[in-house]
Amino acid sequence: MSEAETSPRFDQLLRVFLRIGLLSFGGPAGQIALMHRELVEERQWVEEEDYLHALNFCHLLPGPEAQQLATWIGWRLHGWRGGLAAGLLFVIPGAIVILALSMLYAIAANLDWFVAVFLGVKAAVLAIVVQALLRIAGRALNSPFKKVLAIAAFISLFLLDLPFPLIVLGAGLIGVSVAAVRPHWLSLGQSAAPVEDGPRPWRATLLAVLVWGIIWAVPMALVAATLGREHVLWDIGAFFSQLAVVTFGGAYAVLAYMAQEAVQGFGWLNAREMADGLGLAETTPGPLILVTQFVGYLAAYRTPDPFTPLVAGLLGAGLTTWVTFAPCFLWIFALAPWIDRLGKAVRLKGGLAAVTAAVVGVIANLTAWFALHVIFTSVGEARMGPVRFYLPDWANFDWRAALLSAVAFLLTFGAKWSVFRVLAVCALGGLALSLVSL
Length: 438
Description:
Distance between the termini: 66 Å
Largest sheet: 2 strands, antiparallel
Helix content: over 70%
């Protein structure tokens, strides 16, 4: 079928991506599957090979791969305006929901019934995160060398407390090197197809970098000029701009790093509130990385001067969303013209394969951190030389969270219930247990 026969009108693209944005539950795997069904299988707007090729490339980029894939598809079908429309429609519905829930959370977080509901939500999310870890590991760790990389990444983060960006960069460099001499270690072919000749799209790339670099920087410049670099909004914008550059491997990969900095570095919220935010993001449409909006809202809400808490929270959430997703458009619009060319480079594929393997270890680190902070209300740390140990306080063992987590695991892995059913049962279970404890 020719491209002309399958290329949609712009209004058709808007309607379909609005539908995808409203239905994009289930994390990256569910979102990618939804787009595949809507755009490849049913409407045949994109060829299967092109879809998978672009998806593999988006895994290499920092940021949420599903949102960037949506942006690339829009760009492929209708240029810049198509990419902008598809990318925004993928994010906006979830962003509106997360903002509303963040506002409710800031007001109701100290109410007993609200705490009880979120106890169940966090227990359910623990099972969901473990399920995501196992799925990603099963898909990504298809060679012994990749398993070694994943274990090394986990040890480097969980025990050695090495910086997350260093893990990603190191894995990428290892992959590039190994691909040149032992490609089968990374399950790559023995040789790569030659990179296409022809004119290189430097002009389009430089224009995209210039335009989106300015768009990315404008709100930060306004904050610096009006509030100064000591204001919490500057800290929020600077931190999440940095995060946007190092979020390789999707949201799960970076959440532990974000949680550590937001909780321990800036003190914007505590570990249990961070777990609550992840629970909110898991239950709403859109990219999981929208949990950053929750963090930005609470950070500004709690240090609002010179604004009211509500206005400060809205500004914090808006700024966080801006600096999180503006870079995603920069990466796609700058690199989309190169995707066909770069996808044939075996060393680049090796770097991507190694990063993907390391991301499994990163997600395992998040899973362990999350489990400790769900089951225990207090978790300390100790060091023995370069090794960092987490020390859960057994006096603060939360039997209700442990029980609800066990139920969530049984429903998720035994009964194979959907995410929504597990969340609903665990939330109701949290309420019931709170009544028993009275």
